[in-house]
Amino acid sequence: xxKDSNGKNSNRKLxxxxxxxxxxxxxLLCLLGVLAFHFFAARERxxxxxxxxxxxxxxxxxxxxxLSEDGVYTPARRxxxxxxxxxxxxxxxxxxxxxxxxxxxxxLSTPGQSAACLPNxxxxxxxxxxxxxxxxxxx
Length: 139
Fold this sequence. Notes:
By secondary structure, this protein is an alpha+beta fold.
């Protein structure tokens, strides 16, 4: 016989609860299904409208370029910086800054993404032309 917390003899057996029972598995499966649905639904949802890049120098918009037209752009007030648009994406391709972090940031294509060359005070931002708000951006 086993003793209970008061030190008296007890006739009931101690049972251990299993770590995961059948109901727990169903709950976990349902949660995973909901998460998978939202993940794939968010990937399929595309923002509509024309994407463009806004090039800002020292806080003022220097140029607005469409991502549908390939080309290389140089901000008027920062001739040492070159920005390229290709295949619907935009990015820094040359800068005279010491670390070249802006060049290594790669090409941007999703509305809401941005890159900056801090020594030259140039900011590159991708947006939508038709005023469509961006729900979220994940990096």
